[in-house]
Amino acid sequence: MKSFFTPHQEKLLNKLNIQNWFDLLLHLPVRYEDRTKITDIQDLKDNAFSQVLGKVIDVDIVFRGKRNLVVHLEDGCGDQISLRYLHFYPNQKAQFKVGKYVLAAGNVRKNLITTEIIHPETAVFNAQEVVLPENLTPIYSVTSGLGQKNIYRLINKALEFASSQKLLNFEILNHKSKTDGVNLLDSLYAIHQPNKNCDLQELNYFSTIFHQHIKYAELLSQQLYLKLSKDEFKNQKSKIFTLKNNNLKDSILNSLPFKLTESQEQVIHEIESDMSSGKVMHRLLQGDVGSGKTIVAIIVSTLILNNEYQVAFMAPTEILANQHFKKIKELFQSTDVRVELLTGSIKGRKRNEIIDDIESGKIHYVIGTHALFQDNIYFKKLGLCIIDEQHRFGVKQRLDLMSKGKKDGHQPHLLMMSATPIPRTLSMSYFADLEVSTLSELPKDRVPIVTKLVRDSRRKELMQMLKNELNNDNQIYWVCPLVEESEKLTLSDAVNTYEEFISFIPKEMVGIIHGRMKDQEKDEVMSKYLQKKIKLLVATTVIEVGVDVPNASFMVIEHAERMGLSQLHQLRGRVGRGAKKSTCILIFKENLSELAKQRLKIIYENQDGFLIAENDLKIRGPGEMIGTRQSGVPGLRIANLVEDADLVKEVSDYSGNAIKSNKPAAHRFVEFWFQDKNYLRI
């Protein structure tokens, strides 16, 4: 990577989880815009992305609760449009001088009185003639300091590099290239530099033949990895952990204020049988939101600790790691087990002491984040790696953690946990070569969440009603799909919703959290919410996987009709984690399609995440975009197990034969995809 990017670019790209030039090519556009043409103002349609060209006739700063910059344009037909900026710099007004021409692109808002674009992208010219692009414009997920133009230039550089070096020709994909009529390089070029004649809807729905080809390649890399690593595991040995006299387990079970479900007991038996067999365990623990996966992981870890080996428990965020640490430390407080936390924010002498004590074996149970991957961290006798929310970690990261446990010659066991529902039919096909345990029931004391459907026209009324909930000492989540109005869809955004709330609720009671905030900022907000300092949290879907807030008993999700059912179910699971009766309100727009009605009916009537995923799979149409791209499978960035069920089966059927017919080619493909020749070093 260092030879391809500058150090500064490398640092910025790392924030987007881009480690090398191939990661960059797989950083696909989140959507596309057609900037190859200009639309007359009189032909603009409400809620449609458009590009207009007009002369500046007036610029003004108006007050609508706060200062707005408004630029008025007039096109050659004499029709007018306003460009509105809710957030602007002091010198921004000066660039829009009367008489200049402005090319503006964005989502149009149109009613009987006004036509406007909120936060458009603009270019200012002295004359009316402008040069338009020949291709559709890809829009990428970016980060501060690395905008659209810069990332586009880097991706084009990577495409030229791959083409000149002939790096994307794989014999294991030849059969698919013949069937599709395109290869991997063709597909990447077509997706990053789409011709203006391409179907814009297919591009935005990830359903072009080019997207399908890349999805197939990605799914194949995963299947080959799973099958090849499974073969490798057969030759790996682990210590035989004896089940007898496990006083730690008895101590934990006796301290619990509840009884384990039959499903939990069955899964514990499966995991303990694996770890006492002498063979390396590589098991995925699936469980619906609130099914008790964490306590299962803690109980099975007593087998490792009782045999005087260490346990590493990894979480995706510091606040989640902190929560696990407190729970685990409390459970082991009356034992000799030393439990410690290691995250990026622990520094200096304390950090060095923890690292030394891990290596010497003085620390028996360590909970951490990505900090556990660091090269200077070694375990004396690592027996079990537990990875929470495993889809948040790549394959290489898991291998890095497991490789830290080979000092005594034994391979540590691996237990991955996921709350992302994967339909059972797909799980059987995709994880055919991976051991899977499923928690199929919720604890009996879990209070069902009441789900309600509310029309968007009652939004203001609902916001006022929440004041009463806050007065009753309840905590509330209000979930908005997007962060700012300048995003493609004119959905309610977190920033404006937050400002609406603080206009009639004390500001110190309201918080906001979204994906563009730094991790430290997000952790601080969630900590205040946990401590009840914040009573109402306005959030985007970053809270989908997060901490337990037992006092949170009320959630509102805006534009529920646009979200995937699995995502809605995950969000809903953030409430109902305490003893209080909990409610989740799904706000939807009028005039829903039949498919949208069916899908909202499923989430309204069901609380079983796996059943919801199965039903979602049954009703979706070919190429239907059903929401979140979160796949629930480690390393999947583009494909989605539910949306791409047909491809999953095709890949699953092909991968086994591919290994038998040409194992070296399978190895080469997986090594390249993961950019790691040592991907099987476990």
UniProtKB/TrEMBL annotation:
Top class in the EC scheme: isomerase
SMART domains: DEXDc, HELICc
MF (Gene Ontology): 3'-5' DNA helicase activity; ATP binding; ATP hydrolysis activity; DNA binding
EC number assigned by the record: 5.6.2.4
Domain Helicase ATP-binding: 274-439
Keyword Coiled coil tagged: no
Alphabetized UniProt keyword annotations: ATP-binding, DNA damage, DNA recombination, DNA repair, DNA-binding, Helicase, Hydrolase, Isomerase, Nucleotide-binding
One BP annotation, GO: DNA recombination
Catalytic activity, as annotated: ATP + H2O = ADP + phosphate + H(+); Couples ATP hydrolysis with the unwinding of duplex DNA by translocating in the 3'-5' direction
NCBIfam families per UniProt: PRK10917.1-3, PRK10917.2-2, recG
Function: Plays a critical role in recombination and DNA repair. Helps process Holliday junction intermediates to mature products by catalyzing branch migration. Has replication fork regression activity, unwinds stalled or blocked replication forks to make a HJ that can be resolved. Has a DNA unwinding activity characteristic of a DNA helicase with 3'-5' polarity.
Listed PANTHER family: ATP-DEPENDENT DNA HELICASE HOMOLOG RECG, CHLOROPLASTIC (PTHR47964:SF1)
Similarity section: Belongs to the helicase family. RecG subfamily.
Name of the featured protein: ATP-dependent DNA helicase RecG
